[in-house]
Fold this protein.
Amino acid sequence: MTTSENFTPDKDLPILSSTDAYQTFIESEGIPIVTGFFVEDLNKLEVAPWARVGGLGAYVDLDGNGHTNDAYVCEIPPGQSLNPERHMFEKLIYVLSGRGATAITLGDREQTFEWGPGAVFSIPVNAPHRHFNGSGAEAVRFVAVTSAPLVMSIFNSTKFVFDNEFVFDDRFTSEKHNTGDGTLWQSTTGRHVWETNFVPDVVNFKLFSLPRRGAGGSNVTFELGYNSLAAHISEFPVGTYKKAHWHGPGAHVFVLSGQGYSLLWPKDGKREDRIRVDWKPGALVVPPNEWFHQHFNGGATPARYLALRWGSHRFGKIAGITPNTEGADKSLEEGGSQIEYSFEDPTVLDEFEEECLKNAAGPQMRQFFPNRTSFTVDIGS
């Protein structure tokens, strides 16, 4: 007969933890962990020796990921390579600096492709792979966005995640898509999709007009491999800003060009709740889950950013995660999540024009506000 006894969880059930499996894991890795809303410059982020991966690294676990995905920065010293690895989570990579190559094993074949600054590519789930620095003089630095937090929190087993031989042969990428080739899917919504697994240069990739997001902006969406994680690039002209909107967690926004700022605030927040984040190339912003956010080009050149996020076309619906990529283009009045210019706080425009004048950039937004002709800044109210 089984007897029952009083017990203290901390004493008698030591496997219980106040943190989840992912948090416990990254704390055990021995590299820096960056938190908050924002990283000012990923190129200057402090990294430390990373025994498991090889090279140097730092985790970037920002609040806006909602514990669904994460990022890390990795550096490969000149003439070296990282350790071979495989894992049961998705991974998208954006190359910040340096040149090198990646070898991926897909079943009985191996694909190797070269990359340089501005390249974006994905690693098929659980495919063995290895990264190489192609220079003997210059370090490589890249940032990866992964679905590790979600996967590790579900399975609670690092052995399952990193030492699993299951082959996802239905997710193999073609050699064509690992050389920069792809297929363009044109959409009536204006969000055209480039299906590939490797983009050689997101800084100069051709974009398409997307007026619904405001002020002469342009965009392209990337379907990278057979992933739940996807990507898009947006650009907006000098002296303009995009319409505010909200979406689900985990949209990692990397600034590629331009100088400006973003405003972040809760859906039910007030003016005084707005958080301002100033950015330039190298910055990373992750808007919190279902917070409004708005991006402003306050500098003298076009502003472009790359977003690595949830919401692919193949696997866009994930339990507990609402990417809301379609709703972000629709106004609140139409059931979407976008604030049209005519409904935004009037001080937003005034403060933006001050920023443009400070940076000798001509503001171009008055044309979108036909009923406002005066410049009435009221920052103190």
About this structure: The helical segments are 9-12, 21-28, 148-155, 158-162, 346-358. The chain has two domains: 17-176, 181-368. The first strand starts at residue 33 and ends at 34. The radius of gyration is 22 Å.
